[in-house]
Amino acid sequence: MDQHRSITLEEARKVIAAAAAKAKEIGQPMNIAVVCAGGHLLAFERMANAWLGSVDISIKKAWTSRAFNISTKDLGSNSQSGDQFFGIHASNDGKVMIFAGGLPLKSGDTVVGAIGVSGGSGKQDQTVAEAGAAVISA
Question: Please, which residues bridge with residue 115 across strands?
Fold first, then answer.
């Protein structure tokens, strides 16, 4: 596998479509962002009536997942007081998100990008992100 592979725009659109379908299924409008392997925004969708305040959060969740190759949910679990990543959310000019909804996108063992979802509860964001990520890992 090419270690420099990145998700394509076509693949990113499929990730967003799958995530949006799950968001519609659960009845929660979402902001869905996909970044490339370099961490740059590749594709984005704000569903009708999704929270405006969650646009930036979804993009930063995607960036965080790619920057550290970890789900934002797991990063959050490891960044509580006394844990190994405590304070990480203050790094990178506050760009790091430490709550559920961001996942690395992997092709085999290679991280090719990431998805970030925001607009619902942490559980809803995570569920929608997982639906999108499943398109790449399939």
Answer: 34, 103
